[in-house]
Amino acid sequence: MRIVADENIPLAEAFFADHGELVRLPGREMSREQVRDADILLVRSVTRINAELLEGSRVKFVGTATIGRDHVDEQWLSQQGIGFVSAPGCNADSVGDYVISTLLLFGEQDGVALTDRVVGVVGAGNVGGRLVERLRALGIRCLVCDPPRAEQEGSEGFTGLDDLIEKADVISVHTPLIREGDHPTHHLLAERHIEALRTDQILISAGRGDCVDGQALKARLERDPDLRVVLDVWENEPDIDEALYRLAAIATPHIAGYSLDGKLRGTEMLYQAMSRHFGLPVRKRLGQLKPENWLRRIAISRRAPPQEALLLCTRTCYDVRRDTLLFERYRRQYGMAKGFDLMRREYPVRREFSTLRVELKHSAGAVREVLENAGFAIRSPRK
After folding, report:
1. Can you tell me which residues bind NAD(+) (predicted)?
2. Tens of pLDDT along the chain (383 residues)?
3. What is the dihedral angle through the alpha carbons of 379, 263, 293, 374, rounded to the nearest 10 degrees?
4. Which of 21, 213, 341, 378 is the most exposed place for a label (fewest CB within 10 A)?
């Protein structure tokens, strides 16, 4: 078999090379000619999967190593009898790490504890739902807006979008992009919602760029620069609005879910689905192939203030400010569109909170609790 894979899918050789010839290509530049003779196509979110790309090819199976599927014409694939799979939940903890790092940064700037802010999560699927679990475990009050889930499960525990915007201090958007149906999310945060934001609120967008009306947001920020927005996803990626970029408090190029661990989970999920599709044995496991974290452990005294310990461990793993500064360097050197894609292609290795082992004594109750709830691995020192 011939397997064509996005160059940004890690461990593709380790998982797939036994099944045929593996060819790596830049995802945004994949052409009809390049995939015509492929049997398997493995992509990320930057490749549009539709008849224009695949008609007349011999592709039998398509996998996207992402949670999002709005770049895939699933109906056309089904009509052609082409197998398809995505990787739901693969990078949920990575996005959660991104949000927690952001909340700690603003908390430090404002002198506000994590638990003193109400976080409204819009979209409680694989990513948003996992984020809510982690935030609530940390003692943070969360409001949840998810109309499809509220419709299926009942309204208890869910909040309408207008009510959430009125009551939350932080609004974190994690919806998939849905353009049609009963619950479309294109410009879910429309002009009227953006106008309703208070200047002391924080808006985080880390789902899909088209879920927020970028023009309305830009107009609001030009009038009220004190409103803080964190944008990881954008309309018209990679050629994003530079004026909006300059107005954002934190701006990153769609990398909230770009931890190595999240991407590796996505690769394993595609491998397992491909094996099932073709009736092949599953011989590879991520545990056999996953690289060891270069920072194996950190030791913290039981006397450490819990919130200081959380801040230290978080920034040891991931500091969102570094990605903001790195994005600006890429933009200055290469321009916006090229810099956007190049930073994603060359993104530094980033590990999730769970890969950092924190060494604590058994008696470090309060410190242990906050770090475990944030997602860090706790171990007791050897005697």
Report:
1. 146, 175, 232, 257
2. 999 999 999 999 999 999 999 999 999 999 999 999 999 999 999 999 999 999 999 999 999 999 989 999 999 999 999 999 999 999 999 999 999 999 999 999 999 999 999 999 999 999 999 999 999 999 999 999 999 999 999 999 999 999 999 999 999 999 999 998 999 999 999 999 999 999 999 999 999 999 999 999 999 999 999 999 999 999 999 999 999 999 999 999 999 999 999 999 999 999 999 999 999 999 999 999 988 888 888 999 888 999 999 999 999 999 999 999 999 999 999 999 999 999 999 999 999 999 999 999 776 788 999 999 999 999 876 65
3. -30
4. 21
Q: Among candidates 289, 286, 292, 353, which has minimal Cα distance to 99?
A: 353
Looking at 3.40.190.80, 3.30.1370.170, 3.40.190.10, 1.10.10.10, the CATH number of the domain 297-379 comes to 3.30.1370.170
- Structure tokens given for 90: 């693969």
Annotated binding site: 45, 66, 146, 175, 232, 257-258
Greatest C-alpha distance within the chain: 66
Clarify whether 19 is annotated catalytic.
no
- Catalytic-role residue among 71, 208, 344, 350: 208
Global pTM exceeds 0.70: yes
Q: Do domains 2-86+259-289 and 92-251 have the same CATH topology?
A: yes
- Residue of 235, 237, 268, 352 marked active site: 237
Question: What CATH superfamily is the domain 92-251?
Answer: NAD(P)-binding Rossmann-like Domain (3.40.50.720)
Known binding positions for NAD(+)? 146, 175, 232, 257
Residue of 254, 331, 344, 368 with catalytic role: 254
Which residues does the annotation place in the binding site for substrate?
A: 45, 66, 258
- Among this protein's residues, is 136 annotated catalytic? no
Is 265 known to be catalytic?
no
User: Residue 188, CB half-sphere, CA atoms under 13 Å: how many?
Assistant: 29
Looking from the CA of 314 toward its CB, the CA atoms found within 13 Å total 26
